[in-house]
Amino acid sequence: MPDGFASTEERATFIAALPKAELHLHIEGSLEPELMFELAQRNHVAIPFASIEEVRAAYAFSNLQDFLDIYYQGMGVLHTEQDFYDLTAAYLARANADAVRHVEIFFDPQGHTARGIAFETVVAGITRALDDTAASYGMTSKLIMCFLRHLSEAEAEATLDEALPFLDRIDGVGLDSSEVGHPPAKFEHVFARARGLGLKIVAHAGEEGPPAYVLEALDLLKVDRIDHGNRSLEDPALVARLAAEGMTLTVCPLSNLKLCVVGDIADHPLRTMLDAGLAATVNSDDPSYFGGYVNANYQAVADALDLSRDELLTLARNSFTGSFLSDADKARHLAAIDAYARPAPRV
Ligand code: ADE
Ligand code: ZN
Description:
By secondary structure, the protein is of the alpha/beta class. Helix content is 50%, strand content 14%. The protein contains 17 helices and eight strands.
């Protein structure tokens, strides 16, 4: 019996409605095969798949690069402002169904501008969906623009230039794509400029790359959060520092499994992170490619590690404390978790 629950079914019910924030979600990674086919038709784009089943069968990855090759190809069906709206609206409906009350969405502008899609088209479609959703679901959001680390720092600088007219809608910058061989140090100057513009800073680090990349993200990029961070566990001094600084890690269990960062979900280090005092959170990364949205990630890791009620509450609390919401908004969400955790009064 899981600690704090009468049964695993009771734990599943608890996870389903637990108020949570999602802090690591690539909007292009939420492109479901059904929408991919619809947009390919709408935009007369050829895709190398004959059926939805064929697409799903192609989602067998042995590392990050395997996935990225398919991910960049998949986003090629996104052309118009309406496409970006439809993509974002579909994700937000799924998130709402998973009791996500706040979301911080990544997008990869260079994956689109390199194909001739205007930066403005991408931002306009995503933000129109965010605005509509805020109105209909009461869900809040932040938007984080990621630089592709396999490209040059000069290209990241040009992307930051393109973002300048839209900074009222962009809350932060991040660093994603092929990690090994592209350390945070490569982007020190562009992140310093982003910080100077008042943007929040995050970076993928320690997903496949070594603990030294996490250190660079802290010391050179001066990140507000680390995305993934798994390999930090190889360096006890780094773990102690991350814990002492209260640095949030946006952990993605099903992503880690599908990209072979862990060999088995039962070997996932999430509990080790919590036990070490790390502010870990649970997120879906690229849910269409990795087999599940945020609740599926909570569920998979809860089942595999037999997570307790207290551990699940800690994860949900960490998701709000690690967000870029104001202190007042964080307090409101934390109070909602406290209310959810209180047993219902007996009548
Ligand atoms: N882009 C989309 N998902 C990613 C991941 N998990 N790691 C690095 N880059 C990404
Ligand atoms: Zn990611």
